[in-house]
Specification:
With 424 residues, the protein is an all-alpha fold. It contains 17 helices and two strands.
Length: 424
């Protein structure tokens, strides 16, 4: 299929505004991850005070994942129906309220409910954000915009560690303040979003790439939503997102506990380790987008550039097969930082591929993929907790296996993405 000549109208906003938009989206991801990551970073402390075992903690993480998946689907439908200009700040305020409530829990059941509500509303961040970058940015620039968007995740993950070091003491319940402080930032973000973004910014036509080998782009060609679910590319991305999410969330959820309970790190050392780890993931996310844009500037077809970067970052992430069998120490820490660099760099590429499937149904497409990935995590986290309780010696093998999943996903992309099929 040849690219058609019609292009979207030139944007009425300046390049400076586009950078501002990237900063606003980055800060939304930052708050999303800060509210989410506060619990894993204090998991050992919370487990002790609330008298939870690993399987119960796995159930809490599991219900967060299931709610996140359901929320991704529901919010994806809403994002295609309601203006994201209004939907996004409403969701921000809702998940901030759920995070604030987490600071008051006293029982396993209460923690389970608040994490469920947090996951349900936080899920809306991604359909809203990806619908925004899809409409504002050219395909060659979307990986960079998505990498800045994703770059808020490690900054948000660092924030709880900094607050823990400042606020959490030996006094029982001091960990609760972390949830309260983080939740308060949702209100100013919602105000900034409404001031910075106009409805017309989110109504632009969308370009897509049309040839994986030779390059080129055209206005997005649409299929009915339920037909998209049966296309090769949707099913391929379903596999890819499961692979990269399993790798990323294994480290996010279980590594803090492993460092403290299996490798002998103190709570303060765990916080400092993850400050360094999240910093490495931030650099990795930005690097993936920057590298893709640089390859595109050097006349690489957009898809070839995306695939090359995905492969390189998958190789780096596969170092988990080495780190899994190392004792704690400088070598272990160094390799873990590389793993963090590689694992988050995979997501901007995935998001850019996700945005190739539809403009009209972008929210539902992204939400469906997110639902499937988190639905799987709902069953996996309790199972991992059970393995940790009953077969702790299998932990290294599990970590090594999940670290290799992105390479498998990359091979599938290389073989199955192919040329865009003709639409009728």
């Amino acid at each position: 299929m040849k690219p058609i000549s019609q292009k979207p109208a030139e944007p009425q906003r300046s390049a400076g505004w586009e950078w501002l938009l990237c900063g606003v989206l980055l800060s939304a991801t930052m708050l999303n991850y800060a509210d989410r990551q506060a619990l894993p970073m204090m998991a050992a402390r919370v487990k002790t005070e609330l008298k939870l075992n690993n399987q119960q903690y796995g159930q809490v993480e599991g219900i967060f994942g299931l709610a996140f998946g359901v929320g991704a689907l529901v919010c994806g439908i809403l994002a295609d129906w309601i203006s994201v200009r209004w939907l996004f700040p409403l969701l921000m305020l809702a998940w901030s309220a759920a995070g604030f409530a987490t600071g008051w829990v006293e029982t396993f059941s209460a923690l389970w409910v608040t994490r469920m509500m947090l996951g349900l509303f936080e899920a809306g961040h991604w359909p809203c954000s990806l619908r925004t970058t899809q409409r504002v940015f050219h395909p060659a620039r979307r990986p960079l915009a998505n990498s800045i968007l994703q770059g808020g995740a490690p900054i948000g993950a660092i924030l709880p560690s900094l607050l823990i070091l400042m606020l959490v003491t030996d006094e029982a319940g001091s960990w609760r303040q972390v949830f309260w402080y983080l939740a308060l930032w949702g209100v100013p973000w919602a105000i900034v979003w409404l001031v910075a973004v106009r409805a017309s910014d989110l109504e632009r036509p969308v370009l897509q790439t049309v040839d994986a080998d030779q390059g080129g782009e055209a206005l997005m060609q649409e299929l009915p939503f339920f037909r998209i679910l049966l296309t090769r590319r949707f099913l391929l991305l379903l596999f890819v997102v499961m692979c990269i999410n399993l790798t990323w969330h294994y480290v996010r959820v279980w590594m803090p506990i492993a460092l403290e309970e299996n490798l002998g790190y103190t709570s303060a050392q765990v916080q400092k380790f993850f400050i360094a780890y999240w910093t490495a993931t931030f650099i990795g996310s930005l690097s993936a987008g920057w590298l893709t844009s640089q390859l595109a500037k050097r006349a690489w077809p957009v898809h070839s550039a995306r695939l090359a970067v995905f492969f390189g970052f998958s190789v780096v992430t596969s170092l988990a097969a080495v780190a899994a069998f190392l004792p704690g120490g400088w070598l272990f820490v160094g390799i873990m930082l590389l793993i963090g660099f590689g694992s988050l760099g995979l997501f901007p590429i995935y998001y850019s591929l996700n945005q190739e499937l539809s403009a009209k149904h972008q929210g539902k497409v992204g939400g469906s993929l997110g639902f499937a990935a988190w639905f799987i995590l709902y069953f996996i986290h309790p199972r991992i907790g059970w393995l940790m309780d009953n077969f702790p010696d299998r932990r290294p093998y599990l970590f090594a296996a999940v670290g290799l999943l992105p390479l498998i996903a990359c091979a599938a992309l290389a073989v199955l993405w192919g040329r865009r099929p003709e639409q009728h």
